[in-house]
Amino acid sequence: MTRFSVFVASFLFLAGSAGVSNIAHAAELKAIQHDKSNLTFVYKQMNVPVEGRFKKFAGQLSFDPAKPESAKVVLDIDLMGIDAGSPEANAEVAGKVWFNTAAFPQAKFVSSSFKPLGGNKYAVTGKMTLKGRTQEVTAPFTFTPQGSAGQFDGALVLKRADFAIGEGPWADFGTVANEVQIKFRLLAHTTAK
Amino acid sequence: MNERYTGTAITLHWLMAVLLITLVGVGFYMQNLPVSPWKLKLYSWHKWAGIIAFALLLVRLGWRATHRPPELPATMTPLMRLAAHAGHGLLYLLMLAIPLSGWLMSSAKGFQTVFFGVLPIPDLLSKDLELAHTLGEVHEVLNLLLIAVVAGHVLAALKHHLIDKDDVLTRMAPRHGCRQG
User: What total number of domains does chain A contain?
Assistant: First the structure.
C-alpha cells in the first residue's frame, strides 16, 4: 500500500518575498508553492461580484489521502494583507466597522475533522476565528496528486454578519451582500513515508 | 420654415437633456464622497442611468437615420450652418464616447457593470488599475467637453430665439401641438 503524507509549514509573503520552511522538520516538510497557492474571496456589491485576495497567510498542513481522518490544517491569515478589490476598498475594510485590523490583525482556521466524500473529494470542518468571533465552518475540497506534490481546491461561503464584518451603516445587506465566497487553492509538496 | 420636430424627437431630446444633466451632476458629486453604502449606490445608479442614456442615443440615431430633421433657417450663413452641424455632430460623438469610456473604466477597475443588478454587461477589459486611472481621466475630460458643448448649444438656441428671432428654439420646445410621428 502506498502511503504518502503532505506536510507543509510555510509562510506566504507578497510576491518577491521568499517563503520560509520549517527547518526543524526539514526531512519531511517542504514549502508550498507560493505562485500556485492562493486564498481568494468573492463578495457582491450592489449585486456585482467583486474579487479579493488574502495576499499573506501562513499554513501548517498534514494530509494523507489514505488516512484523511487524521489530517490537520491550521491557517493564519494576515488581514493587513487583504486586497478587497480596489485601493479605496482596501483602506475602508481595515477600519473598525469592517475587519478592525488594528485590534484583530489575523484570522485563524483550525481544523477539527476531515471527512472523505468519495473519489478525490473531501470535506474539512473546523473553527474559523475572525474579528474575535469563532464559528464552525465546513469546506468541501478536492485533492489532486501531482507527482510529488498535491493540490487542494475548495470553497465555502461565510456570512459576514456572523463575524460582525461590516457594522453600522454596512450592517444592511442591500449594498454589500452577507454571503462571501472563500476559495482556496494550495499546492503542497509531498514526501513518501 | 415653421416646421417643428416630431413629438418623438422632442421627447427624446428633452429626456436626454434631463438624463445628461443628472448624470454629469451625480458623476462629479459622487467622486469625492467618502466610501459609504450611499456612494456605492450612487455609482451603481450612475452606471445604470449611463446605459439608459446610451440606449436612448441609439434610439435617437435610429430616428435621425429614418427622419429628415427640419431645415435650418435660410437666413443662416454657411459658416453658421457648419458650426451648427459640427456642434450637433460633437454632441452625438460625446453621447457615444462618454458612456463607453465609463463602462471601460469600470471594467478596468475590476467592477463589472450589472444593469439594475440583474443584467451583466460583458467586460471588454480585464482589471488594470493604471489603465482605469487613464480611462477615468478620459471620462472626466469628455464630460468637461460635453459641458462646454452643451453650454454652446444652449447659447446658440438662445441667440436664435432672442437675436435672430427665428423658430430654431421653439420648434424643439415641448409645447402646443407637436407634429405626429
Answer: 1
Contact (Cβ atoms closer than 8 angstroms) between residue A69 and residue A113: yes
Distance CA(A118)–CA(A140), nearest Å, equals: 11
Which secondary-structure segment (H or E) carries A190?
strand A176-192
Q: What is the ipTM score, two decimals?
A: 0.82
* Buried-state track A158-176, b at ≥16 Cβ within 10 A, e below 16: bebeebbbbeeebeeeebb
pLDDT average per 10 residues of sequence, chain A (193 residues): 40 34 31 78 96 92 85 92 93 96 96 94 97 97 86 96 97 97 89 43
Chain B within 8 Å of A91 (Cβ-Cβ)? Answer: yes
Q: Provide the CATH number for the domain around residue B128.
A: 1.20.950
Q: Give the CATH number of the domain where residue A116 resides.
A: 2.40.128.110
B134: domain range? 7-172
**Do B110 and A85 lie within an 8 Å CB cutoff?**
yes
* Overall residue count recorded for chain B in this entry: 181
Q: Give CA–CA dist B23/A73, Å, rounded.
A: 51
Residue (of B102, B110, B103, B101) closest to B128 by Cα position:
B110
3-state secondary structure of A89: helix
User: Does the beta-carbon distance from A45 to B37 stay under 8 Å?
Assistant: no
Q: How many separate domains does chain B show?
A: 1
Chain A residue numbers touching B118 (CB-CB < 8 A): 47
A45 touches chain B (CB under 8 A): yes
The number of angstroms, rounded, from the C-alpha of A80 to the middle of its chain's C-alpha atoms is: 15
Question: What phi-psi label fits residue B116: left (phi over 0), alpha (psi between -120 and 50 degrees) or beta?
Answer: left
Is residue B177 one of the residues assigned to a domain?
no
pTM of the model: 0.84
